[in-house]
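In this section we walk through a basic example: taking a raw amino acid sequence and producing a predicted 3D structure, encoded as discrete structure tokens. The instruction is simple. Fold the sequence below.
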Amino acid sequence: MFQDEILGMKSELRRMARKDLLRMVFSQPEKNCILGGPCPFLLKYQEIRFCVSEILGQKCQMEKLRAIPEDEEENGEERNGVNPEPDCWASAPPRDPVVIS
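The resulting token sequence is shown next.
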């Protein structure tokens, strides 16, 4: 029963205009996400908290923030301006010097 009510509220929020939904969420104070830390995209609607990002069909903003440090660790050298791949000229065979007479 309770799950049906939540699904009904969620579909009601999905039918709302995007600007009205965002206006509602940004008019409320930030709340702590269950993933940790304050999130501006949490909406308290009829005493239940909903993630507006997920209602809009996007990934949770807290999950996106957590994914960024993992990406930086994997691609750390590349992001610091050092390309892990050798330059193409470095792997080219040496040429004979050109003599101009």
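Looking at the output, two observations stand out. The longest strand covers residues 42-45. The helical segments are 2-15, 18-26, 52-55, 61-74, 76-79. In the next section we compare this with other chains.
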